[in-house]
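Practice record 12: protein with iron/sulfur cluster.
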Amino acid sequence: MAPHPYQHIQTALAQWYRINQRDLPWRNTRDPYKIWVSEVMLQQTQVNTVIPYYHRFIARFPHVHALAASSLQSVLKLWEGLGYYSRARNLHRAAKIIVKKHHGVIPGTAKEIKQLPGVGDYIAAAVLSIAFNLPQPVVDGNVKRVFARLFLMKDPVNHAGSHAVFVKQAEALMDRTMPATYNQAVMELGALVCKPNHPGCPACPLQSHCLAFKETTVGDFPRRKKPKPLPEYALAVGVVKKKDKILITRRQENGLLGGLWEFPGGRIELHEGPDASCLRHLKNDVNITAEIDTFVTRIKHAYTHFKITMDVFTCRFVSGRVRLAGPADFRWIRFDEIKAYPLPKANHKFLPALRKALKP
Ligand code: SF4
């Protein structure tokens, strides 16, 4: 049989990986459930951030049955701070499907696993290759960066239209005799050596194959499309006080931050003051008439596609019975009970100031 055209690269990668791979908790298992959880967490989030979340998640939900039997709120609470909450919601929904439809066994084919909520090409390839050793190439940001430099690929790595080109290259380079090692090795090389800034070319196992290194153009790759500036929105939120309780609401499950709890509020309209906006949202969204008590603080937060400035007020309850127009649920709680509820990161930013403002 003719040798694989990229055999030298494959061998160099595998040897390097065996010696240099990090000892990460999900690397000590072939359990598809644990690998699936880790890969979902690792999408969009740095390894060091993921590790404690992974440990807590697996301790609480050691298998898919435990996850399927849990409440969405308990999953979101464990996910709190990790961001991209649709990942947690999809994981939870998928666990229920796996138990119901697949008798608790993570599907081992691309067709079946991709039917699960939140399982796209990347997660499917990662789980199938790492847990089942199937030749499904993974293509994430690390892989694209390595390929762009190794093969002088000019396609912008942050453009959806060029994804297929990188997938094609990944399929060509894939070592079909040991897909689990190959996929993890490329990603690990991107994470540890072929880093975005200051790649460690002198120590790179692929240096002699790398076209960008040969041409001394490493700094020109990967190519990126200039991202558009993020839009900014001004929001006002009101913490309504009624005796020793405050009002919190839960977001609808679909959409940004779905299922998380927050304080009622929303966008400030053009020519509207933040305090007036706050009272308008209280009236419109939860049917509460209130008065502004104090301005607590202003916080800023950046999401992937936009930024927000949020003005936070405490408000005195005047009248009304909560009727929801927008939120999915509500609770009147004491401030110290809030830690039981999963909140968006932006809300956590103002909790210390709110605690002070609520002190009698
Ligand atoms: Fe990346 Fe440098 Fe290795 Fe090329 S030689 S793959 S640029 S680290």
